[in-house]
Backbone:
């Protein structure tokens, strides 16, 4: 038996085929494609929804974007270093993901380096390989490797970890926070053990991560070249009246738009904070889902040093303290003089509350402690902070599996009255939330649902 999702994807690919091969001659095509679709948000989800519809023959599409740029949480910086720096999404998670396929289509070069993960463990920076002999560390690694098969409760990871034999070791706690909470866009005090394992089990994107050698946005500009011109910038949507057709959309500056269907891809925080008024109100189940799914603070701080003081084969290192994880930003792209501090959850909330000079002071003193001799402070040249919680129209990092969020991602992805279609990374229930490929799939899915 085929599932509804498979049916939708099949229908969209049949229609796509009809549109491409039969030159729009099918009697069904004009009915569908004459509809006006407004897409809210020009991140990966919005652009992918637009491209899918465009390829199927829809030409009456508008994309309303609140910012003066496209990409959303994909944001390549070309000014800070002699190579492009990603202030948001950076890695491709999974060899089977739609994102990897798109990048391969454009012959995107990836970084191929012999690199290793390190940990600041018992006052020494050590590679994970070196630590294999340590019994407690080995148990902690096994805990992570076997998560998907463990029977866990819907409680924060911090609670589950405190009951393990390694649950009192500060460096192991920091390691587990970096690998679980921080990677998932929060910290172990809020990430649900059960729900995280549940959604991880569904993920079929593959285990391999890829770093691009070039800027993400220059590749996506090629993939979405036909739909980027459809974006209207500085359009902050404030009200969506879907009580009748046409649906009426109002923006902060008083702009008015009409549509037969609306695809909403704004970040979860925008919905949580009710920055958009819906008329009528969203169904209760959607309202509950929006509140149940987590979205925390997150930031990247990129620092340039006068000399490299970390191992040349460093992939990343995790440490106890204000920054859970660092990686060398240059990493095969340019000079190895830059580190990226990747900070989510409680640490990001703390750093976000400090002035710019105090923020960098805290980070440098953590690095001085790890590498010794005040080496980070002595060699500091400049830095850049991207604080996503303070970034207008984003207001956080990405969705995460909070306690009680089981089932909420799939509810958020359900259409309302066949008129409102939610997309965006937080609507994925296949374990691809939090990612670029999840956002792209959500756009594909929403476009497919408009057809049936
Ligand atoms: C620091 C960081 C690192 C990350 N690293 C990775 C990584 O390595 N790999 C990976 O796969 N993913 C990563 N992600 C996650 C990834 O960036 C997101 O999952 C993905 O880009 C989300 O795409 P989206 O289209 O769902 O949302 P967004 O990209 O947020 O797009 C939504 C758009 O809606 C717009 N908007 C908001 N409100 C309104 C409004 N009222 N009216 C009109 N428009 C509005 C916003 O301006 C935005 O452009 C990272 C994210 C962050 C923050």
Residues:
């Amino acid at each position: 038996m085929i599932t509804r999702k498979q049916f939708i994807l099949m229908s969209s690919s049949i229609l796509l085929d009809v549109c491409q091969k039969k030159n729009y001659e099918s009697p069904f095509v004009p009915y569908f494609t004459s509809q006006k679709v407004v897409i809210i948000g020009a991140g990966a989800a919005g652009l992918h929804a637009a491209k899918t519809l465009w390829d199927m023959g829809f030409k009456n599409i508008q994309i309303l974007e609140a910012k003066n740029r496209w990409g959303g949480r994909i944001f390549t910086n070309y000014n800070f270093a002699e190579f492009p720096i990603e202030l948001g999404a950076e890695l491709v998670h999974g060899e089977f993901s739609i994102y990897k396929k798109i990048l391969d289509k454009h012959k995107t070069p990836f970084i191929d380096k012999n690199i290793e993960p390190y940990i600041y463990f018992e006052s020494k920076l050590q590679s994970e390989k070196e630590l294999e002999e340590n019994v407690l560390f080995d148990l902690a690694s096994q805990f992570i490797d076997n998560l998907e098969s463990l029977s866990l409760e819907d409680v924060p990871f911090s609670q589950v970890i405190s009951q393990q034999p390694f649950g009192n070791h500060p460096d192991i706690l920091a390691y587990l926070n970096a690998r679980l909470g921080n990677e998932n866009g929060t910290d172990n005090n809020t990430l649900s053990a059960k729900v995280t394992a549940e959604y991880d089990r569904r993920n079929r994107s593959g285990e391999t991560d890829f770093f691009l050698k070039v800027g993400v946005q220059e590749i996506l500009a090629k993939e979405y070249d036909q739909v980027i011109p459809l974006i209207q910038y500085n359009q902050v949507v404030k009200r969506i009246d879907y009580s009748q057709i046409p649906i009426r959309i109002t923006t902060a500056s008083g702009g008015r738009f009409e549509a037969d269907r609306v695809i909403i891809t704004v970040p979860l925080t925008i919905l949580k904070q009710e920055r958009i008024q819906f008329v009528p109100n969203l169904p209760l189940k959607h309202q509950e889902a929006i509140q149940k799914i987590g979205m925390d603070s997150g930031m990247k701080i990129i620092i340039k040093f006068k000399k490299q003081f970390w191992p040349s084969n460093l992939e990343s290192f995790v440490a106890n303290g204000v920054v859970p994880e660092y990686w060398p930003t240059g990493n095969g792209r340019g000079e190895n003089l830059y580190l990226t501090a990747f900070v989510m959850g409680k640490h990001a909330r703390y750093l976000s509350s400090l002035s710019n000079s105090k923020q960098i002071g805290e980070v440098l003193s953590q690095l001085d402690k790890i590498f010794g001799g005040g080496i980070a402070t002595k060699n500091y040249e400049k830095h850049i902070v991207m604080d996503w919680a303070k970034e207008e129209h984003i207001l956080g990092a990405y969705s995460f599996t909070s306690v009680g969020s089981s089932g909420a991602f799939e509810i958020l992805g359900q259409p309302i009255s066949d008129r409102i279609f939610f997309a965006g990374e937080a609507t994925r229930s296949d374990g691809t939330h939090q990612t670029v490929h999840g956002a792209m799939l959500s756009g594909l899915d929403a476009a497919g649902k408009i057809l049936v």
